[in-house]
# Entry
Amino acid sequence: MPHVITQSCCSDGSCVYACPVNCIHPSPDEPGFATAEMLYIDPVACVDCGACVSACPVGAIAPDSKLTPEQLPFVELNAAFYPKREGKLPPTSKLAPVLEAPVVHRKSGGPLTVAIVGSGPAAMYAADELLTQPDVRVNVFEKLPTPYGLVRAGVAPDHQHTKRVTELFDTIADKPGFTFFLNTEVGSDLTHDELLRYHHAVLYAVGAPSDRRLDIDGMELPGTATATDLVAWYNGHPEAADLRVDLHTERVVVIGNGNVALDVARILTTDPDALARTDIADHALARLRDSQVREVVVAARRGPAASAFTLPELIGLTSSCDVVLDPADHDSVLAELAEATDPLTRNKLEILSTLGDTTAPVTRPRIRLAYQLTPRRITGDARAAGVEFTVTGGDEVVEISAGLVLTSIGYRGTPIRGLPFDADAAVVPNDGGRVIAGADPVRGSYVAGWIKRGPTGFIGTNKSCAAETVHNLVADYNDGLLADPVHRGAALEHFVRGRRPAVIGTAGWKAIDEAEIARGAGVRPREKFTSVAEMVEVAANAPAPPIHRRVLAALRR
Ligand code: NAP
# Structure
């Protein structure tokens, strides 16, 4: 009865270190880790101890006897990662190597103090890494009243298992030395230079807050939007709450076929009664209940073997939705399958080859995966009426009618005031997380996550990414390369509250969290607030911790 890793794997890697027999691969120190679509348990070496189950932050691991029917393909998928050995144990019975935690050299002036900007996975993993030692303080600044970035506002609401990683983040936020400054925007409420007066270093983990724009005619028409806007809208991001999403159309076209495109296609075709049991935003649920969408076409410019979505997400999609292919695309799948040698690509193609085709009667909203379509222009006069594509590599033009066109061609980083920016790669130029201007490091400035390496990978990919940055930051601190802060201790709290009276701390966030869970009434995991003003009000009524009371009293004097 070996254990099996399933679709919600976040590649956090904690299971690797928990496993006493090193049977989970690729591990963070192996070359394939950065690009792995998920991690895999070796069914021959697994001793079935369950240590990985407790270590996994997203509940993605179960014994093979306790899988749901939709999870059964993962038994074969885990096993297929390993060579066939006819029952013989592989040479993996040693403890997995554990990454060395950075060792901070204690200094007389006070603790190492780091500001982290952003509160998504890269930020929280960086905080965790820094707080492995006692003599460190971490202050996390977030412009929204709620933390955890794309885990709250990006992970699809029907992927609640993945959102469970927030339990790990809550534990990190409760560590001594950790302080939240939520509802506070660095770059407008506070500047980079001001933060440096209170910290040894500022580490930006702000993600890629914008999206890549498709430069074709018609993108300005009503009825076009980006998939990332739609994701923010259905996840209740306050800045997307007013997005006008008209679902009074039979067909939606999504351009691009990465995991975001699959998320959006799944949400648009899932039964709203099922979504009503998730934390989807109320405004989105109401619109989906009223939706007339019967088909979502996910259009890729290349062929099936080059699909950008990952295998676990394809398995999840095909086990929960009606997914079909055009007969011509079926032929392409079979032709590519005959040529493909890479096991991962073969696996994807094999699943695609089993899909029904578009000639089947439509019994419920369905998803059509379409290939070799390069977008040429959005058609329509007053609003979008469809997309004109050229068949990739030829002159043939194909039009697919649609009342809503979503581009899903990737996220994009945006410049950070006061730091250099590489506009081509849309990242802050860096060397292992140290911000650089040309070849020179920018003193006290660091990056982690998507703003460091671009918008790729999964939640857990940010763990090793953040660890690398923290190692370099601590090395610079130990080498005396970071300036001591001018102000220390409670002065920061006083300063921030002076600039941003509506700053929200951990107590305020907990009040918002508890209120949302209570609004869910046991039927939904939570009912999200989508208005900043409402959240600020809930947070303001939270009992202030003693330090806040002292600062407030000082401010009133
Ligand atoms: P992505 O995986 O980079 O996919 C981008 C898609 O856009 C590709 O199909 C790409 O096609 C297409 N594209 C790019 N430029 C185009 C153009 N000019 N015209 C037409 N198509 C174009 O991006 P994403 O879906 O936004 O995902 C971002 C990251 O988040 C990924 O690492 C993803 O795995 C991760 N993510 C993970 C999950 C999950 O694990 N559940 C969920 C969401 C996101 P080409 O391949 O031909 O360039």
